[in-house]
Amino acid sequence: MKIKMRGLLAVAAIMLTAGCGGGEQPRSTQAAVADRQGAEAAARLVAVDHGDTLALQRAILDARARADSFAIAGDTVATAAFDAAFENYLKEHDAALHAAIFNSK
User: Fold this and answer.
1) Within its chain, how far is the Cα of 16 from the centroid?
2) Residue 24: how many CB atoms within 10 A of its CB?
3) This prediction's pTM
4) Cβ of 75: how many Cβ atoms within 10 Å?
5) Residue among 16, 10, 102, 94 nearest 2 (CA)
6) How far apart (Å, rounded) are the C-alpha atoms in residues 56 and 50?
7) Residue 23 confidence (pLDDT)
8) What separation in angstroms does the CA of 36 have from each of 55, 69, 76, 78, 104?
9) With the C-alpha atoms ordered 8, 13, 18, 20, is the resulting torsion angle positive or negative?
């Protein structure tokens, strides 16, 4: 079970960082929406029983799909806002899960 969890978290780290952009970006009208959705997606992930790897995977994929909707629209600012809000929420509310996902990069 522990090996499956590590593999799941490694996949989560790759998926969550895949959409991250860099550099100075123009302001986005969707950035506030993305920020709220990122925090909400992280809250749903924190609420999942961490022993239920299928539910964790589902929550992670849902979060990535929401972030990707901004990326598909070409809104790199909103995508970055979602990713930052997601990571910050995890860091504040579930440090162990944050470390498992973001420190395994």
Assistant:
1) 5
2) 5
3) 0.73
4) 22
5) 10
6) 7
7) 46
8) 22, 14, 16, 10, 25
9) positive
CA distances to 3, 17, 100 from 87, rounded to whole Å, are 23, 10, 12
3-state secondary structure of 67: helix
In tens digits, the chain (105 residues) has pLDDT values of 555 666 666 556 555 555 544 444 455 679 999 999 999 999 999 999 999 999 999 999 999 999 999 999 999 999 999 999 999 999 999 999 999 988 865
Six-digit token string for 99: 């470390």
Q: Which amino acid is at 80?
A: A
Tokens for 68, please give them: 């990707």
**What is the residue extent of each domain of the chain?**
2-20+28-102
- Residue found by looking up tokens 């598909």 in the block: 72
Residue-level pLDDT at 22: 47
Q: Over the range 94-104, which residues count as b (16 or more CB within 10 Å of their CB) and which as e?
A: beebbebbbee
